[in-house]
Amino acid sequence: QVQLVESGGGLVQAGGSLRLSCAASGRTFSTYKMGWFRQAPGKEREVVASITWRTASTYYTDSVKGRFTISKDNAKNTVHLQMNSLKPDDTAVYYCAAQTKLFGEYDYWGQGTQVTVSS
Questions:
Q1: What torsion, rounded to 10 degrees, do the Cα atoms 64, 113, 34, 15 define?
Q2: Torsion on CA atoms 70, 51, 46, 22, rounded to nearest 10
Q3: Statement: residue 69 has pLDDT above 90
Q4: What are the backbone dihedrals phi and psi of residue 29, each rounded to the nearest 5 degrees, phi first?
Q5: Residue 34: is it exposed, middle or buried by C-beta count within 10 angstroms (0-12/13-18/19+)?
Q6: CA 95 to CA 46: how far, in whole Å?
Q7: Rounded CA gap, 39 and 46, in Å?
Q8: d(CA 22, CA 66)
Q9: If DSSP codes are grouped into helix, strand and coil, which group holds residue 53?
Q10: What pLDDT does 30 receive?
Q11: Is the torsion defined by CA of 80, 118, 47, 63 positive or negative?
Q12: Upper half-sphere CA count for residue 79 (Cβ side, 13 Å)
């Protein structure tokens, strides 16, 4: 079991920045990859960024490249998502997720944190 708790969401004006954090506890040593997802009202959930736990290989969806940065702190079992140059289209509930198997799906999820970007 892996428990994930997100923090750092809030309301920000367009062009501003926010930093999301995801604290992992439990069987974190078995984690292969951590990801940030988001879901806006009326839209499907989409992956925003991911990072592999051992090699720190990263992935970003095209719409956030150059604006968002995912990073991890192994000592604190925490993953961060630094979001800069925020746009109203970034408004969504952001979820942290953990994939524990190399060829599996994301199998643990946080409760989500709201990010609202005003124009």
A1: 20
A2: -60
A3: yes
A4: -65, -20
A5: buried
A6: 10
A7: 6
A8: 21
A9: coil
A10: 73
A11: negative
A12: 31
Half-sphere exposure of 109 (CA within 13 A, CB side): 13
* Cα distances (Å, whole numbers) of residue 37 to 59, 94, 96, 109, 119: 12, 6, 6, 10, 22
Q: Are 93 and 114 in contact (CB under 8 A)?
A: yes
| Residue 102: predicted pLDDT | 85
pLDDT at 28 (0 to 100): 74
What are the φ/ψ torsions at residue 44 (nearest 5 degrees)?
-75, 155
Confidence of residue 1 (pLDDT cuts 50, 70, 90): confident
CB 81 within 8 A of CB 19: yes
* Contact criterion met (CB below 8 Å) for 21 and 6: yes
Beta strands per DSSP E along the chain: 2-7, 10-13, 18-26, 33-39, 46-52, 58-60, 68-73, 78-83, 92-99, 108-109, 113-118
